[in-house]
Write a structure and sequence with these properties.
two-stranded antiparallel sheet, alpha/beta, 8 helices, 5-stranded parallel sheet, single chain
Length: about 210
């Protein structure tokens, strides 16, 4: 996993790979039985990297996630029952919990400016909290990521980026979408994984 070693472990993660898979299998069962009436985005395939990453993230830190946020929410300490309840309400792609400093957005790049503003505020307050922004390889290729990353580094903000690379931008191969994948900055954590699920739901991959 590129560039993770620069961050020290701050806690033991109380979830195993199987714990995460079991939770997601429960969500799959609810979805396939018609209990969830909204899109569900699943994270199968990246359990081990996320467990390692979240051992570096303090519970008091801020975590900004995308529409694929179930594992992030679990690993950041949000109650399992609460997460499942929100997913049943149709909020799989917009899990937010202010008590746990956890935010997610279904909008591509939607979390980036908010995470940047949070990091600015924490620095002005003299806080020791960090802001972690977990994004996909599609978001990583956008101009707004470049701008947010550059601003955060130029002003030495406590904002850290993790790229979860499943090689697709929605359902189109990322390389085909952007032609050339840009280099990974030295301060960005990057890893690749392959999920057995499509962009959302539990059916089969269809690549356009």
């Amino acid at each position: 996993m590129k560039n993770l070693e620069q961050y020290e472990k701050v806690r033991e993660v109380p979830f195993t790979k199987q714990d995460l898979i079991d939770f997601e299998d429960q969500i799959v069962s609810l979805w396939e039985n018609g209990k969830i009436k909204a899109p569900v985005h699943l994270s199968n395939g990246n359990e081990e990297p996320l467990i390692e990453i979240f051992s570096r993230i303090d519970y008091n830190d801020y975590v900004f996630s995308t529409w694929r946020s179930h594992y992030h929410a679990l690993l950041h300490g949000l109650p399992t029952d609460w997460i499942e309840s929100e997913i049943l309400k149709g909020k799989s792609i917009s899990l937010c919990n202010l008590d746990h400093n956890f935010y997610s957005s279904a909008i591509v790049t939607g979390i980036l400016p908010i995470a940047l503003g949070t990091a600015i505020g924490l620095k002005r307050q003299g806080s020791k909290q960090k802001v972690w922004c977990l994004i996909g390889d599609m978001t990583f290729e956008t101009g707004i990521f470049y701008e947010v990353h550059k601003y955060a580094r130029n002003f030495d903000l406590p904002l850290y980026f993790v790229v979860e690379d499943n090689k697709v931008s929605t359902q189109t191969p990322t390389k085909a979408t952007w032609n050339k994948i840009k280099d990974i900055p030295d301060d960005v954590v990057h890893y690749k994984y392959k999920s057995k699920y499509p962009h959302y739901g539990t059916g089969k991959w269809v690549v356009f």
